[in-house]
Amino acid sequence: MKSIIQWSVKNSPAVNIIFMAVLLGGLACFNSLRREVFPAFELEIVLVSVPYPGASPADVETGICQPIEEAVRSLDGVKQVISVAKESGGFVLLELFSHVRDVQKVVANVRSAVDRIQNFPELSEDPTVEQIVFRDTAIRVAVLGPEKHNSDSELNLREVAENVRDDLLRLPSISQVDIRGAKKYQIDVEISESTLRKYNLSLGQVAQILKRENAEMPGGQLRSDSQEILLRGKNRREVGEDIKSLPVLSNSGGAVLT
Q: What pTM was estimated for this model as a whole?
Protein backbone atom coordinates (compact mmCIF):
# COMPACT_ATOMS: atom_id res chain seq x y z
CA MET A 1 0.00 0.00 0.00
CA LYS A 2 2.84 2.39 0.86
CA SER A 3 4.52 1.70 -2.46
CA ILE A 4 1.33 2.68 -4.32
CA ILE A 5 1.09 5.93 -2.37
CA GLN A 6 4.77 6.73 -2.99
CA TRP A 7 4.37 6.00 -6.70
CA SER A 8 1.29 8.25 -6.87
CA VAL A 9 3.12 11.13 -5.20
CA LYS A 10 6.12 10.82 -7.52
CA ASN A 11 4.02 10.39 -10.69
CA SER A 12 1.24 12.90 -10.28
CA PRO A 13 0.74 13.43 -14.06
CA ALA A 14 0.07 9.68 -14.52
CA VAL A 15 -2.37 9.68 -11.61
CA ASN A 16 -4.23 12.63 -13.16
CA ILE A 17 -4.44 10.82 -16.50
CA ILE A 18 -5.86 7.68 -14.82
CA PHE A 19 -8.35 9.81 -12.89
CA MET A 20 -9.53 11.58 -16.05
CA ALA A 21 -9.83 8.27 -17.92
CA VAL A 22 -11.99 6.78 -15.13
CA LEU A 23 -14.12 9.95 -15.01
CA LEU A 24 -14.68 10.02 -18.78
CA GLY A 25 -15.45 6.29 -18.80
CA GLY A 26 -18.05 6.79 -16.08
CA LEU A 27 -19.69 9.66 -17.96
CA ALA A 28 -19.79 7.58 -21.15
CA CYS A 29 -21.45 4.65 -19.35
CA PHE A 30 -23.93 6.92 -17.56
CA ASN A 31 -25.95 7.56 -20.71
CA SER A 32 -26.36 3.82 -21.38
CA LEU A 33 -27.50 2.93 -17.86
CA ARG A 34 -31.18 2.12 -17.35
CA ARG A 35 -32.72 4.61 -14.93
CA GLU A 36 -36.23 4.44 -13.48
CA VAL A 37 -37.75 6.68 -10.83
CA PHE A 38 -40.34 4.03 -9.95
CA PRO A 39 -38.86 0.73 -11.16
CA ALA A 40 -40.91 -2.45 -11.62
CA PHE A 41 -39.55 -5.48 -9.76
CA GLU A 42 -40.21 -8.81 -11.47
CA LEU A 43 -40.00 -11.70 -9.02
CA GLU A 44 -39.33 -15.32 -9.90
CA ILE A 45 -42.88 -16.18 -8.79
CA VAL A 46 -45.77 -17.29 -11.00
CA LEU A 47 -49.36 -17.00 -9.78
CA VAL A 48 -52.15 -19.32 -10.98
CA SER A 49 -55.62 -18.29 -9.75
CA VAL A 50 -58.99 -19.93 -10.43
CA PRO A 51 -62.29 -18.46 -9.16
CA TYR A 52 -64.82 -21.04 -7.99
CA PRO A 53 -67.95 -19.13 -6.89
CA GLY A 54 -69.77 -20.60 -3.89
CA ALA A 55 -67.28 -23.38 -3.22
CA SER A 56 -65.91 -24.19 0.22
CA PRO A 57 -62.14 -24.26 0.90
CA ALA A 58 -62.21 -28.07 0.96
CA ASP A 59 -63.88 -28.22 -2.46
CA VAL A 60 -61.39 -25.68 -3.82
CA GLU A 61 -58.47 -27.74 -2.52
CA THR A 62 -59.62 -30.99 -4.15
CA GLY A 63 -61.07 -29.49 -7.35
CA ILE A 64 -58.66 -26.62 -8.06
CA CYS A 65 -55.39 -26.70 -6.11
CA GLN A 66 -54.55 -30.40 -6.30
CA PRO A 67 -54.97 -30.72 -10.11
CA ILE A 68 -52.81 -27.62 -10.64
CA GLU A 69 -50.12 -28.93 -8.30
CA GLU A 70 -49.96 -32.25 -10.15
CA ALA A 71 -49.77 -30.48 -13.52
CA VAL A 72 -46.98 -27.99 -12.74
CA ARG A 73 -44.84 -29.68 -10.09
CA SER A 74 -42.59 -31.45 -12.60
CA LEU A 75 -42.02 -28.47 -14.91
CA ASP A 76 -38.44 -27.30 -15.50
CA GLY A 77 -37.47 -24.29 -13.40
CA VAL A 78 -40.09 -24.76 -10.66
CA LYS A 79 -38.48 -24.79 -7.21
CA GLN A 80 -41.48 -24.80 -4.86
CA VAL A 81 -45.27 -24.95 -5.15
CA ILE A 82 -47.55 -23.33 -2.56
CA SER A 83 -51.34 -23.67 -2.73
CA VAL A 84 -53.95 -21.56 -0.95
CA ALA A 85 -57.59 -22.66 -0.91
CA LYS A 86 -60.22 -20.23 0.27
CA GLU A 87 -63.92 -19.74 -0.12
CA SER A 88 -65.01 -19.12 -3.74
CA GLY A 89 -61.57 -19.63 -5.24
CA GLY A 90 -57.98 -20.66 -4.85
CA PHE A 91 -54.52 -19.86 -6.16
CA VAL A 92 -51.17 -21.59 -6.53
CA LEU A 93 -47.81 -19.85 -6.16
CA LEU A 94 -44.84 -21.25 -8.07
CA GLU A 95 -41.39 -20.17 -6.90
CA LEU A 96 -38.78 -20.51 -9.64
CA PHE A 97 -35.08 -21.17 -9.32
CA SER A 98 -32.94 -18.04 -9.34
CA HIS A 99 -30.86 -19.33 -12.25
CA VAL A 100 -33.86 -19.41 -14.60
CA ARG A 101 -32.98 -17.06 -17.46
CA ASP A 102 -36.23 -16.90 -19.39
CA VAL A 103 -39.04 -16.52 -16.85
CA GLN A 104 -41.62 -15.86 -19.56
CA LYS A 105 -40.87 -19.26 -21.09
CA VAL A 106 -41.66 -20.91 -17.76
CA VAL A 107 -44.85 -18.83 -17.51
CA ALA A 108 -45.88 -20.07 -20.95
CA ASN A 109 -45.17 -23.68 -19.94
CA VAL A 110 -47.26 -23.24 -16.78
CA ARG A 111 -50.12 -21.75 -18.81
CA SER A 112 -50.01 -24.67 -21.24
CA ALA A 113 -49.99 -27.21 -18.40
CA VAL A 114 -52.96 -25.54 -16.70
CA ASP A 115 -54.90 -25.36 -19.97
CA ARG A 116 -54.51 -29.12 -20.40
CA ILE A 117 -56.31 -29.84 -17.12
CA GLN A 118 -59.67 -31.40 -17.97
CA ASN A 119 -61.08 -32.16 -14.51
CA PHE A 120 -61.76 -28.67 -13.17
CA PRO A 121 -65.24 -28.35 -11.60
CA GLU A 122 -67.97 -27.34 -14.04
CA LEU A 123 -68.85 -24.14 -12.16
CA SER A 124 -65.24 -22.95 -11.86
CA GLU A 125 -64.16 -20.00 -13.99
CA ASP A 126 -61.23 -19.79 -16.39
CA PRO A 127 -57.77 -19.86 -14.74
CA THR A 128 -55.34 -16.96 -15.03
CA VAL A 129 -51.55 -17.36 -15.10
CA GLU A 130 -49.26 -14.38 -14.53
CA GLN A 131 -45.87 -13.42 -13.20
CA ILE A 132 -45.93 -11.32 -10.05
CA VAL A 133 -44.60 -7.81 -10.68
CA PHE A 134 -44.31 -5.09 -8.03
CA ARG A 135 -44.75 -1.48 -9.11
CA ASP A 136 -44.60 1.67 -7.02
CA THR A 137 -47.40 4.19 -7.50
CA ALA A 138 -46.13 7.41 -9.07
CA ILE A 139 -49.27 9.56 -8.80
CA ARG A 140 -52.91 9.15 -7.84
CA VAL A 141 -55.74 10.88 -9.68
CA ALA A 142 -59.13 11.08 -7.98
CA VAL A 143 -62.32 11.07 -10.05
CA LEU A 144 -65.32 12.33 -8.06
CA GLY A 145 -68.97 12.11 -8.97
CA PRO A 146 -72.31 13.21 -7.51
CA GLU A 147 -73.33 11.80 -4.14
CA LYS A 148 -75.84 9.30 -5.52
CA HIS A 149 -75.85 5.65 -4.62
CA ASN A 150 -77.49 3.93 -7.57
CA SER A 151 -76.33 1.76 -10.44
CA ASP A 152 -76.56 4.51 -13.07
CA SER A 153 -74.30 6.91 -11.17
CA GLU A 154 -71.75 4.14 -10.53
CA LEU A 155 -71.70 3.21 -14.21
CA ASN A 156 -71.30 6.84 -15.26
CA LEU A 157 -68.46 7.34 -12.79
CA ARG A 158 -66.77 4.16 -14.02
CA GLU A 159 -67.08 5.37 -17.61
CA VAL A 160 -65.49 8.73 -16.73
CA ALA A 161 -62.65 6.95 -14.91
CA GLU A 162 -62.02 4.73 -17.95
CA ASN A 163 -61.90 7.79 -20.21
CA VAL A 164 -59.36 9.42 -17.89
CA ARG A 165 -57.31 6.21 -17.92
CA ASP A 166 -57.33 6.08 -21.73
CA ASP A 167 -56.25 9.72 -21.94
CA LEU A 168 -53.36 9.11 -19.54
CA LEU A 169 -52.19 6.05 -21.45
CA ARG A 170 -51.86 8.16 -24.58
CA LEU A 171 -49.06 10.14 -22.90
CA PRO A 172 -45.64 8.82 -24.00
CA SER A 173 -44.22 8.87 -20.45
CA ILE A 174 -46.98 6.69 -18.92
CA SER A 175 -46.98 2.92 -19.45
CA GLN A 176 -49.58 1.65 -16.97
CA VAL A 177 -52.73 3.06 -15.34
CA ASP A 178 -54.96 1.07 -12.99
CA ILE A 179 -58.46 1.90 -11.80
CA ARG A 180 -58.98 1.30 -8.08
CA GLY A 181 -62.07 1.55 -5.94
CA ALA A 182 -64.51 0.79 -8.75
CA LYS A 183 -66.78 -2.23 -8.70
CA LYS A 184 -66.28 -4.90 -11.32
CA TYR A 185 -68.89 -5.34 -13.99
CA GLN A 186 -71.41 -7.98 -13.02
CA ILE A 187 -74.64 -9.30 -14.50
CA ASP A 188 -77.04 -11.05 -12.13
CA VAL A 189 -79.45 -13.67 -13.46
CA GLU A 190 -82.43 -14.09 -11.14
CA ILE A 191 -84.91 -16.97 -11.52
CA SER A 192 -87.81 -17.56 -9.20
CA GLU A 193 -88.06 -20.81 -7.28
CA SER A 194 -91.42 -21.58 -8.85
CA THR A 195 -89.97 -21.33 -12.36
CA LEU A 196 -87.11 -23.65 -11.46
CA ARG A 197 -89.52 -26.21 -10.07
CA LYS A 198 -91.80 -25.89 -13.07
CA TYR A 199 -89.04 -26.89 -15.49
CA ASN A 200 -87.20 -29.19 -13.05
CA LEU A 201 -84.04 -27.09 -13.05
CA SER A 202 -81.51 -25.99 -10.45
CA LEU A 203 -79.45 -22.80 -10.34
CA GLY A 204 -76.33 -24.83 -11.02
CA GLN A 205 -77.85 -26.31 -14.18
CA VAL A 206 -78.95 -22.87 -15.40
CA ALA A 207 -75.46 -21.49 -14.76
CA GLN A 208 -73.90 -24.34 -16.73
CA ILE A 209 -76.33 -23.84 -19.63
CA LEU A 210 -75.63 -20.11 -19.79
CA LYS A 211 -71.89 -20.77 -19.68
CA ARG A 212 -72.20 -23.23 -22.55
CA GLU A 213 -74.49 -21.08 -24.70
CA ASN A 214 -72.72 -17.76 -24.04
CA ALA A 215 -69.54 -18.66 -25.90
CA GLU A 216 -67.56 -17.87 -29.01
CA MET A 217 -66.15 -20.98 -30.66
CA PRO A 218 -63.97 -21.55 -33.76
CA GLY A 219 -65.71 -23.48 -36.53
CA GLY A 220 -62.86 -24.41 -38.85
CA GLN A 221 -61.89 -23.16 -42.29
CA LEU A 222 -63.23 -23.10 -45.82
CA ARG A 223 -60.55 -23.15 -48.48
CA SER A 224 -60.75 -22.57 -52.21
CA ASP A 225 -58.20 -21.93 -54.92
CA SER A 226 -58.29 -18.18 -54.38
CA GLN A 227 -59.21 -17.59 -50.75
CA GLU A 228 -59.48 -18.98 -47.26
CA ILE A 229 -62.48 -18.26 -45.01
CA LEU A 230 -62.34 -18.71 -41.23
CA LEU A 231 -65.58 -19.87 -39.61
CA ARG A 232 -66.43 -18.82 -36.07
CA GLY A 233 -69.57 -19.15 -34.00
CA LYS A 234 -70.13 -15.76 -32.39
CA ASN A 235 -72.75 -16.19 -29.69
CA ARG A 236 -71.08 -14.40 -26.80
CA ARG A 237 -73.32 -11.84 -25.06
CA GLU A 238 -72.03 -9.11 -22.74
CA VAL A 239 -75.22 -7.11 -22.08
CA GLY A 240 -78.02 -8.18 -19.77
CA GLU A 241 -80.73 -7.84 -22.39
CA ASP A 242 -78.74 -10.03 -24.80
CA ILE A 243 -78.07 -12.69 -22.16
CA LYS A 244 -81.78 -12.68 -21.39
CA SER A 245 -82.46 -14.05 -24.89
CA LEU A 246 -80.09 -17.04 -24.58
CA PRO A 247 -81.88 -20.39 -24.96
CA VAL A 248 -82.13 -22.39 -21.75
CA LEU A 249 -84.50 -25.23 -22.71
CA SER A 250 -86.22 -26.46 -25.85
CA ASN A 251 -88.90 -29.08 -26.36
CA SER A 252 -89.45 -31.59 -29.12
CA GLY A 253 -91.63 -29.11 -31.01
CA GLY A 254 -88.81 -26.58 -31.29
CA ALA A 255 -90.15 -24.11 -28.72
CA VAL A 256 -87.31 -22.36 -26.87
CA LEU A 257 -87.37 -21.16 -23.26
CA THR A 258 -85.15 -18.15 -22.59
A: 0.50
